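Technical appendix A lists one of the benchmark inputs used to test multi-chain prediction within the project. The record comprises two sequence entries:
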Amino acid sequence: MNAVRDLVGVAWAGLKARKIRTLLIMLGPVIGVAAMVSAVGLTESAKGALQAQLAQLGTNLIIAQAGGTFGSQNPTFPSNAVQRAENVSTVTSAAATTNLSGVISLPIQGASTYYQAFPVPVRAADDNLPSVLEVPLLDGRWLNTSDSQLHLRSVVLGSGIARQYGYLPGEVRTILLNGTNFGVVGVLGPVALDPDLDNAAFVTEWAAKHLLGTNGLPNQLYIRAVPGTTQGTANSIATAISLGGPDQVSTKIPSDVLQAAAQANKTLQEVALLAGLLALTVGGIGIANVMSISVIQRSAEIGIRRAVGHSRAKIGGQFLLESLFVGVLGGVIGAVLGVGVVYAVSAFAGWVVVIAYGDIPIWMGLALFVSVAAGLYPSIKAARLEPLETLRLG
Amino acid sequence: MSATSSDTLPYGAPRIRDHPLLELEEVSRIYGEEVEVYALRDVSLQIFPGDFMSIVGPSGSGKSTMLGLLGVLDLPTAGTIRIAGQDVSTLDDPTRSRLRGNSIGFVFQQFHLIPHLTALGNVETALLYRDLRSRDRRERAYLALERFGLADRADHRPVQMSGGEQQRVALARAIVTDPLVILADEPTGALDSVNAANVLDIFRSLESPERAVVMVTHDQTVAGTARRKVSMRDGRIVSDERQSDAMQ
């Protein structure tokens, strides 16, 4: 153990004795690692805001839509569509909504002309819709079983509609649905994965059936799948709901669009990575070059060390360790520099910083590998040097 | 080395007065492959504890080759070299290096200090890889410097010191390991007469019944200091004599 400590001390002193030279050969690994860290960091950070949103929303939401049944105007799912969907083992939760066409929603009595021209979609929705969407309520509460059981005329507004109706948080307010007064109990938060919901008003299935005169059959399902199985689940859903019957089901994964938008520019990233790799390689050649010359310059030192009893292996180890330190230090400085560049540019450009910290050790390892590989030949040369030839005796 | 040192030498050889510390037996060293040049031819020499000797001869007489072989920096083409009874040709490099480090202290004409290290660092170099705690190593190195009056120079680099001081640092480096043999190559060759005399005084003070001091030189004054004088010519020893009037 002490021998290792001694070796480290000797190598460190050797590097410290030639600070400028050490700094110069360190530039290779520094630039290489910094280039790679910032290349990936900058291309990712440019899409950082979208990625952050995506990470928050999750990529496992599936929307299933009822297709036409014998040319029906308003295609619907069977009434037990949610149970059928939940039969798919990778489905973690599901909620149904029903588009209630022909229901006119009015904020006040007198606005009928406008709202008949631009109707607000009204939907019947399951109790668990917000939890499936993972969207909190902006205000109040969501529809619940008491609303159905007590036959309450409750309505929840989408965030867009709430704004349009000028609804104030906590306000006691009624709106008219097909002429019936409904009390606003809450406002759903913005649904980034399905903005259609922001412009809808939600009522219970009971109200849809009994107060608004619809059949209450769902036509849209919101489904959460086990992360990583989204695509497969989406494929199974159609069969699970139609059970081979005539119902047609189309599914979409709303995060796909967002994901595509959040994708970093891979080509740019690869080019920059390649440039970093090139810098590292050239830097490695620089290290090999300088270390080789250094071995010649320091041949007297090598001879002295051999004379005082340092073995060939120790001499080789000393030079190899110097290269290794250059690689380690260069890698660390490069990583810090790269991260700094990403933060600086992101702050300037207003990006959300995304840095793949897990990848940084790989690049630092690469810098280390290149440096040690570069130091190998000079080290062997140093170890093989004949002390007699370097000491100029007699 | 004090009289209380251990009774055995490194590698278990018994420390007996009459056994040579260093022994060359019919040693030849040939350079070149196509044209063979004999730098040494069938040389036999024994160096005993207490020897204070000089090896003299003109350039090309084989002195340097002899020094390299005695210091185990080189191996003979033919013949046997033993340090404390150990045949050095049979040892692998780490063992041979350790044997060299433990048994031999070198002093060179050009001092050969490592330029980027301080005086203390240079002396410490000889104590590396010996499983010493760094504090002990530093202390031993410091004591060696102190012995030659260089305590206040411990933090100086070679370029900040005079030739005489540098050679004393080199001497401190040579003795800090308490070697069996001190091998000096023209130790006063690069010094003015005052410093040369000073260094020679130190060499005299290093004489001990346990240790051998060997100076390779072409300077008759230096050679005259020694009790034993080995003369070389054309790769052979031509005389090996005791000098009763040495030292004065």
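Chain A touches chain B through 33 residues (CB under 8 Å). The radius of gyration of chain A is 34 Å. Comparable benchmark entries are summarised in Table A2.
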